[in-house]
Queue: 2 jobs
Job 1
Amino acid sequence: KLNLSSDDIEKGKAKYKNKFASKEGVTWSNYSDNQLLYWYYKLKSVQRFIETYAMVDSFNHNELLKPDSKIISLGGGPGFELHALKKMGYYNLLTLDVTPEFEDMNKLLDIDFKLYDFNKGYDELEKMKPDCIILSFVYRNYMTRDDLNKLLKFCPMILVNDRSPNLKGYKLNDNQYIL
């Protein structure tokens, strides 16, 4: 609970509305601002939930993902993407994020959370043996195709929740997919 005054909520609304007006935009470092977090949780939660639910629902007719599949959201923030999967019956879920402020929301959603900085490499992630990795904001803003290739060396499925026209879903081989 953020326990903000109505004045703080209004200030946060203005920050959220203008989040990309500055040259830097909003980055993970801004999420220690409770005024901004309030609106991020209120608005982004719905967007990420719906996008993820629709993405998995649209492709998983062949049951590539099982309820016990180990699904990791890399840079998953407050856990809204995994919350959608939890509602779909998946339960082996983990959010990895560099921002400690997101741990409380993950706990509220009953999703495991671990601090993780992928800029230090993927060795620790590889040891977790994920069946699927979900990427969204972190892919567009911090990763390259080379990063995807590194992830695909140890993870059979990458789901990218991004509306970028540069990224299309495709099957790499019998056991690897990018959607």
Job 2
Amino acid sequence: AVLAAADKTDPVARIAALMQLRLVAGVNELLDWIGRRKEVSEDGSLTEDDLVRLGELLGSAGAREWWAALVYTGIIEVGASRARRGPQASDWAASDMPPLALAEKLVDIFVAENLTAPLRNASDAASKALVAGGVAKVLGLLTDQEQTLGDQAVPATLHALVAVTLLEPSGRVPEMLRGA
């Protein structure tokens, strides 16, 4: 299984593979952008201009989900009307490669946020069933129960994962990440 293979892969190779992902490699640039603190909206959410800038840093869609993952990992903190470096930011930026566990947690939360975002917005059972099916497919890929998402187009819930190269357009996990 992909997850079992990851545990057996050399940690240096794992972090090197993760650093090829913009959502991991772009964190230091994001921390530079925040500086000591970054003004955000009064409720702590991102402004449209901030979302555009995050999209540029990430190189694709998924800015809200990336921001949430950064908050949940403690790389950034968001309070009323400002964001700042979180308690994990210094560990992240301490060397050329961030701590493996923190990078994996960032990717894990980003994936979870992308997969569950449509559930927060779906109001009908059919939409929720489609999202659940997409989640099940991804879990199948990670456990080698499925090799691809099939001949169907990648479900909309997975487009952000394709955009940040966590999945190939065919739905396969990229070769560089299969053992990472």
